[in-house]
Design a protein that fits this description.
This protein is mainly alpha-helical and 169 residues long. Helices cover 57% and strands 9% of the residues. The longest helix has 47 residues, at 115-161.
Length: 169
């Protein structure tokens, strides 16, 4: 998993600009310079579907197949699959399946009741990653201390084994 948080500020307070900023801050923008994916449109559509699903009490409304996700983002299905990994790693989206017209439909939906709920899941992932990193830092510091103590102890033992030799003229 590669977490890339970026600093970005919205230029103004319109919905598209705020959504673009959010996507950028969580590192969900395409990594290639010439990429054309419009993930801000996708996140807004996922949010609208989740709201409607909650309102109508029909959870299947919130689920979007990858093909549709690609259409909203303006990219091909396979490209959407490539980008989807980051969304899933951060727990912003979750994979869901349901039966419609006798067929099993597999898709993705926001992993929360709204945008904030979904991005709070990402916050937990980032926080857990940082906690694990700080545990590694602590372990590294302890190992460094142990090595220094061992080295000092070994040096001390060598000095005791070889008493000072006196030189006589």
């Amino acid at each position: 998993m590669k977490i890339e948080l970026k600093h970005a500020e919205p230029l103004d307070n319109n919905i598209d600009e705020l959504a673009k900023t959010l996507i950028t801050r969580f590192g969900l923008v395409p990594r290639k310079k010439d990429a054309t994916a419009k993930f801000h449109k996708l996140i807004l559509e996922l949010y609208e579907r989740k709201k409607q699903a909650n309102k109508e009490r029909k959870p299947e409304i919130a689920v979007m197949p990858v093909e549709e996700m690609g259409i909203f983002a303006g990219i091909k299905r396979q490209t959407m699959y490539d980008h989807l990994r980051r969304w899933l790693d951060l727990n912003i989206l979750k994979k869901t399946s349901f039966v419609a017209n006798g067929k099993v439909v597999i898709g993705y939906e926001l992993n929360g009741n709204n945008l904030e709920g979904a991005f709070r899941k990402a916050e937990v992932v980032v926080r857990n990653h940082l906690e694990q990193s700080f545990k590694l830092i602590e372990e590294l510091q302890n190992e460094i201390k142990k090595e220094k103590i061992k080295a000092a102890s070994a040096q001390s033992n060598m000095s005791e084994e070889q008493p000072d030799q006196q030189h006589f003229p």
